Amino acid sequence: MFEIPAAEISPSEKAVLRAMGVPSDRGPGPGVERLLEEALEEFRAKAEPRGIVADVDAREFAEIYEGAGGNEPSSPLLTIFPRADRLMLFAVTVGAGLSDRIAALFDAGRPALGAALDAAASEGTELTGVRLDRIVLEEALSQNVADAAAPDIRVLRYSPGYCGWNITGQRALFDTLRPGEIGIRLTESCLMEPLKSISGVMVTGPAAIHEFADDYPFCSDCTTKSCKTRTRSTR
Amino acid sequence: MEILSQIASELQRGADDEVRTLTKSALEQSLEAGVILEEGLLAGMQVVGERFRAHEVFLPEVLLAARAMHAGVEILEPHLGKTDAHSRGKVVIGTVQGDLHDIGKNLVGIMLSGAGFEVIDLGKDVSPEQFVETARDSGADVIGMSALLTTTMPGMKKVIALLKERGLDSSVRTVVGGAPVTEKYAREIGADSYGFDAARAVECVKELVG
Q1: With contacts defined as CB-CB under 8 Å, which chain A residues touch B150?
Q2: How many CB atoms lie within 10 A of CB A61?
Q3: CB of A231 less than 8 A from some CB of B
Q4: Structural domains in chain B?
Q5: ipTM over 0.85
Q6: Residue A234's pLDDT is what?
Q7: Exposed/middle/buried for A108, CB within 10 Å: 0-12, 13-18, 19+?
């Protein structure tokens, strides 16, 4: 289990604004600036970033990926994971306190702060994942995992519910990883609680294995296209 | 009236303290609460809504304006008679069964209220029966449903089917939305409208209510 200081994963004001749908060329007005300051202060006070990882080999992961069998017939991960140097199941969360606070703010008629804190929490959860990527990469370097020292090695995350991996895959993932240890539980509809959590597999390997064309049948329904930014990311 | 324009203008700036003070002043000037609501607060929110649709302002500004509106309404509430609240229609909203994401739905509710609709927010993880029975018992015009997961989206279809089964589909219209929901899916399940974001959802409701 990893515990990460909240200050290390506190998002920037710009990132919070972007998560709220504000274009990057628009700066915040005075009212919005105060709102962001307050939201980030609340974030740092309430966030409890934690992560958990578990090594699996390709055969074990193939079984987990298959899950309840609801995946798309072809998917990027199906071609990526057999070529990985290392596969690790992971889950991260920023804790239940933030979700409770966001709900309380909306209930109290403070939707602006509630929405800003929600955006900060989403960004903070992603930054917790990024922090975990680094921890895993550094560990791989120290343990001489495959070619971890090679300059083009990437640690990238893939999650159930995205890119053809059916969300019901969460069940098999949770059975193996057991993220209850860091306070995450799975609902009947495969939602994680706290909501501000991410789970999936961290794939360590050369950048080339992570590259794929976004022309799978399900890509046309995808509104985020986050695979493009992820595969461009550097170590 | 100068003070009503000031209320509308301060609301657009998201200045809740100023809106509160001006609303009190307007009451002290013996303006009717219903007039202050319509020509001050709702008029201001309408401008914010128009500017939001035109991408001149964004979500944080809209929510700050909503907070200012809330501040003004709190002052007016004890003075509002039943006839003062000119609701444009009644909308039941909620996140479908099994889904716990409610930020998007909350934003739709805030914007609907700002546009003058009466909103009954059932919260999250709402069963088809809760949606339909609340709409029937409250005489709602529209049910707005949100889902953030492909696994929970079928809950929308169940609500629409239940409305049909109970013969309510002609009196209660439906709007669906949420990240995985597409216009194609909305059509497939027989929803009356598809709101791809909160602003569009409000437009959908306006169109359905007429």
Answers
A1: 161, 167
A2: 23
A3: no
A4: 2-79 (1.10.1240.10), 90-209 (3.40.50.280)
A5: no
A6: 44
A7: exposed
